[in-house]
Amino acid sequence: MTAAARTGGGSRNLVLAAMIFAVSMTFIDQTIVSIAVPDIQRELGLSSTGVQWAVNAYLLTLAALFAYGGRLADIAGHRKVVVIGVVVFACASLLCGLTPKGGAAQAWIVAFRAVQGAGGAVMFPAALGIVVQTFALRERGRALALFFGIAGGLTAIGPILGGYLTEWTWRAIFWVNIPVAAIALVLIAVSKPVTEHRPAPMDHRGLVLIAAGVTLSVFGFQQAEIWGWGNPGIGVAIGAGVLLLVAFVLVELRTREPLMQVRIFRNRAFRFENAVLGIAMLTFVPVFFFVSEYAQIALGKTASEAGLYLLYFFLGFVVASQIGGRMLDSRGAKRPVVLGCALAALGFLLWAGEVTDLDFSDQVWEVILAGAGMGMMLSPASTDAVNRASRLSYGEATGITQTVRNYAASLGLAVLGTISVTEFRNHLRQSLTARGVPAPQAAEQARHMAQANSTQSGGSPIPAFVRMDFAEATRTVLYCMAGVMAVAAVVAFLGLEAGLQPEVPQDGAEAGGGAGSGAVNRQPAPPGR
Question: What is the C-alpha to C-alpha distance for residues 216 and 231, in angstroms, rounded to an integer?
Fold first, then answer.
């Protein structure tokens, strides 16, 4: 009997609520810290590199340890691992908020931001695995649409909440996680989610390879904006990281109890769902950062107002994610994924055409459309990918998809960040030259202005030509995002098969050895798959 069969409807909803509260902390912390960066840097006396790592350390450990978190959940028990992850995350949040002033401040906050990321990496795959096991196959679309819709919507709450909390103290942006963690633990204790797992040895060799590979390559992409792409260290870091990831795949194929069952990529649907997710994540996380900057620099909004700007994106996201989840349950994943990618591409394209007007009221529907497209495709693609795994490896499949998503998000931030800075610098140089500044001086001033921290303007108004130049750079980034989502739509259209995934009993597959021995999904493929 499956976990879904043993759990009543009311209890299932309580389990879903518990998991949403648990993972909401990880979504909020993806954006909330960016708003408070100037205050943190000023009070603690951090260097520019140090404050950058106060943001990046969290994302880095998330990307490096997701695969470990998913595997740990499958072999140690999903509920146990969720509780451990919630406690680790809450304790690390408390300690981040208690960062002392002085020489130890930088090492302290970077270290505990990394611990926060480790807690999130352990928690998220286990939480998603619980939701997947709690709901039957034909109910998962709606359940995970709520899971991703509500939890993902909290990413937009981060900047708004951070803006208001920072007015009191920046430390509160970390302490806000503690009551959320307490609620999650209470709901877990009350709902008592029932899941299946299979004890097995941990593949520590694979853990070292993937953690080092992801860390080095993501480090290279993240540092590119600081060091510059011409720095040889960037190429060395990225190249070494890629080689380690290739070694990881080769080692896992020869390991009896691997950390990640890479053979699951032989499943066509899983392979293409992850390809679509990876392409889409090049835009989904970066859009929060670029739009927040656009609102503050080009539109002259405050940090809190910039957060409100993002709410329109998530208005479309949350509503369309429910539609996408229902389409998944009734028609399968292909239609909502292809349609969602196409709508997002159209939304970003139309949005790009409006940003240089510097009037937010003219952009509202384009922002909503872009968010709706992302919401419609994201939940069905993620859910359908995890559905391809057996009951004993849902955590592992989630770890794979989340590793792909976070790796792609880091790549998107680096590449689109470079495009944004380059375009901004070029437009500034042209504007300064047009105002009579000699070409060499204009180039140097443009370089300095493009690299400067725009949130630290000292309260003086931003010149009109700077606002317009930044809007021009943002337009280029949004055009790139439209192109990326168009590619995702084509990949989904060509790679995914139409129709519902067959609900085939998996007990026989699991009897062959479980998740760890290659039985990630041994069910026979339907005709045409």
Answer: 15
